[in-house]
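Lab meeting, action items carried over

1. Structure of the two-component assembly. Owner: GW. Status: complete.
Input record:
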Amino acid sequence: LIAGQVFDRYPQPLPLQRMARHYGISPADIWRQARQQAPISQSRLKVYGDVLQFLGQAYLRQRYAAILDQKLLEVNHRHRLLIEGVIDYALFTVDRGGSITSWNIGAERLYGYTEEEMVGGNFARLFTPEDIAAGEPIEEIRKAEINGWKQEGRWQIRKDGSRFFGSGAITAIGEGEFLEFGRVMHDETERRASEEALSQARKLESIAILERRVEERTRELERSNEDLKRANADLEEFAYTASHDLQEPLRNVSAYSQLFRKLYEGKIDEQADEFLGYMVNGARRMEVLIKDLLIYTRTTAASDEPIASVDAAAVLETAIRNLDAAIRESQASITFGALPYLPMAQIHLQQILQNLLSNALKYRKAAEAPVIHVTGGLQTGGWVISVKDNGIGIDGRYAERVFGLFKRLHAPEQYSGTGIGLAICHKIVERYRGRIWVESELGKGSTFCFLIPVA
Amino acid sequence: MAARILMAEDNRADVTLVREALKVHQLACELQVVEDGELALRFFEALDADANLSCPDLLLLDLNLPKVNGEEVLSHLRVSRRCAQMPVIVITSSDSDKDRDMAHRMGAARYFRKPSDLAEFMRLGAVIKGLLEKAIPG
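Predicted assembly:
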């Protein structure tokens, strides 16, 4: 009766229903009879219900435990057969501390230890001394515990001490106090070796290709270096030839025209003396031209001096010292503001400044002492140095022409020189990918400027 | 007794200029000229072979000589039996440091670069005079 009410009102009636069926009582019958009885109090109902619940569960536990045990045994047996049958893979389980709890035939084949030898022992003995020293066995278990699973590929040690490359995984099985780890390992030594051989071969192939490229590039560089050396050697050869072979006959023309004048001047007639004068001057001029040409060619040849940051102010002071005689003779005043450091060989900067100052001193107005001011600063594209004078100036039409080789705007009788100075400046500035120009007006002085790109 | 000078020089114009320089400096000399390096070598070989011949007082040596160049002539001279100590003036149009070093190394007394200016060329007379006075005292 009570049971009927309980069935009806107890919140978890299912085990009781099962029990009723087991004893051949119809639950509907019970409900029917139960409804005819006076209701029992809620508190009593709870007590009876709890008792019945306990009884029911105890019964079920007993009833099903046997079945479950049977099933479990069957499953375990099947698993065991399956696991034992795997001979190409080592399958074994370890507990949290690394103690081996099972060991299959595959493990025996792979590692060489029997089940008797291994169960109860620590799986760390399968690791290399290096891995053991690095704490890898414990780490493997720790990671499997955290992530549930960890892929492994590492060198392992067989019973006979030989090594193989094991590839596989370690998996956490169960939980709580039943936590274990299943470890699966397969010998991948050969595959790994062939993979390594392949990658090694690929590496070697890439290296060979690279080496070939480097060789080709080196050869190219060597070729262009040789070309450069040959060009420089040719230039030196030319310079030597020019200085020696060309000057040699000219020297005779020059010396003999002078000797002729010494012996015969005033002894033939006035015209002969005049012609002789042209010969002597022509030969002298030719000599200066050859010398200047040599300087010009040497300027274009690569300077051995490294391109460094050179103090323009210091170089300008050197140039001024070198021109001391001309400065004093012309009573010139030369001033300069703050000057930058320029990325060029000192000798080149000196050649430019000295040529520009020398021109400013030379092309001065007859009645006025030269006043020269040098300034420098950073402008768009690079450093610009300007040399401003109060000289005779240049007709705008010839502003470009003055930088040409042997280009002159005056007769040699007016202003001496061969027209090499600005050509040298132009050549040097071009070497540094810079430019040189003049801002001038006839009779109003000139400002020569050159730009050296920022390195 | 007039000094004896041997000149190894293929350029006759320069020989004439040297004669002019000697004249300007009033040097009474006997100037013998050989026109190439080979003739210079033969000259010294002949001297070594014949004890009756005497060594010149000075050699004026051009470097750029036909057949055997001045440097070789100088090295042969320095190992000759009788003229090894002979003073030498190298007279050349070369201004190269290499040639200057060589001349110095081979014991040349002077290195005279042939100038194109006549007055400068004439200075060679003074150089020769100075050397001869040192070589033949009194």
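2. GW to write a short summary for the group page. Key points so far: The longest helix of chain B spans residues 118-135. Chain B is about 45% helix and 20% strand.
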